[in-house]
């Protein structure tokens, strides 16, 4: 088999890249090691920046999102038992975010790819990439006991943090930056109405909590938990009880609890790969970087990587110009480090660190107090949360 681009991974990055390339007449085959149901079963991001909305619109997959997504113009910071609203729109000249689950984005992308009759090979085992530093790259995989090889012009590594593509790059050609946080997020999805019309980020002496949502009848909650915790240790009652302990009286009063329909613990890390291009291999999304989800940046960074990469690959395949692919890594990393810094800062401000002591809690509360009483401080939070413009760094 031959195609112009082989995309490894059918998460949001791979599917979005496939859709943008298809719209421009560039052929791509996607290889995914899991089943479609498995990919859809992973509950992850929930907040989309305007730039991500624009890229999804360009891909032609924003119809259901515009109908079902929830537009948010602010969120609450909760500390010392009181909530304070960060007016995202008022502080950023009218910008907003959209609450629409990653699962739904992925579903919309899968449906669009299927409707266009494009090739996605699910449950592809033993994917290996070959000769990506030559002019004749290829990707092999096995399915139903048969090994197949696809020759191509370019390989897009959209295979996430544990994927094969980044792992295939010789160590001397790559630099990795990593910080692992001493806690995780226990997440619960429930078919209960959200506790508040906007998100609540809580700094509590007992640890961080986040009240998010997927719709007016489905909520997503997170609790900071020790890395040693196992999800089996947390009954629904224990989760709801601890969440109540970290909320303010009004939210505690309004909280509607119910049976969890998904419950999982995610580790938190900051991670960046430099560069993101190796000959004909390009990394995008979680394959190249990871952020702690506090700043709601992971999926949004993936979307802008993919927008930059699709523009560059279309230029290379259609106009035979390499200017875009030569600039890809630099262009992405300028944006990625900004989002990494904000995600690290917001995580450091909102979570309880094992070694911070009581004075550390006081420092965090004092910084939060400054942020909500200073227009400059609040604008700092708002500008970073709504995200950078697409042409940032140009
Ligand atoms: P993904 O990891 O989503 O997709 C990679 C795909 O490649 C997967 O389908 C995988 O099966 C496939 N793959 C891997 N190895 C392969 C191989 N060898 N061959 C073929 N296929 C292979 N972001 C937020 O903004 N907010 C959040 O709240 C949030 N919560 C998260 C919770 C968890 C547990 C995790 C892991 C991430 C979370 N993120 C969050 C970040 C997340 O949303 C990512 O940014 C997003 O999934 C990135 O999408 P992809 O780059 O497509 O990577
Ligand atoms: C979510 O809804 O999953 C979510 C929202 C905001 C975050 C992280 C996760 O910062």
From TrEMBL:
<dbReference type="GO" id="GO:0043639">
    <property type="term" value="P:benzoate catabolic process"/>
</dbReference>
<dbReference type="GO" id="GO:0071949">
    <property type="term" value="F:FAD binding"/>
</dbReference>
<dbReference type="InterPro" id="IPR012733">
    <property type="entry name" value="HB_mOase"/>
</dbReference>
<dbReference type="Pfam" id="PF01494">
    <property type="entry name" value="FAD_binding_3"/>
</dbReference>
<keyword id="KW-0560">Oxidoreductase</keyword>
<feature type="domain" description="FAD-binding">
    <location>
        <begin position="2"/>
        <end position="343"/>
    </location>
</feature>
<protein>
    <submittedName>
        <fullName>4-hydroxybenzoate 3-monooxygenase</fullName>
    </submittedName>
</protein>
<dbReference type="InterPro" id="IPR002938">
    <property type="entry name" value="FAD-bd"/>
</dbReference>
<dbReference type="InterPro" id="IPR050631">
    <property type="entry name" value="PheA/TfdB_FAD_monoxygenase"/>
</dbReference>
<dbReference type="GO" id="GO:0018659">
    <property type="term" value="F:4-hydroxybenzoate 3-monooxygenase activity"/>
</dbReference>
<dbReference type="InterPro" id="IPR036188">
    <property type="entry name" value="FAD/NAD-bd_sf"/>
</dbReference>
<keyword id="KW-0520">NAD</keyword>
<keyword id="KW-0503">Monooxygenase</keyword>
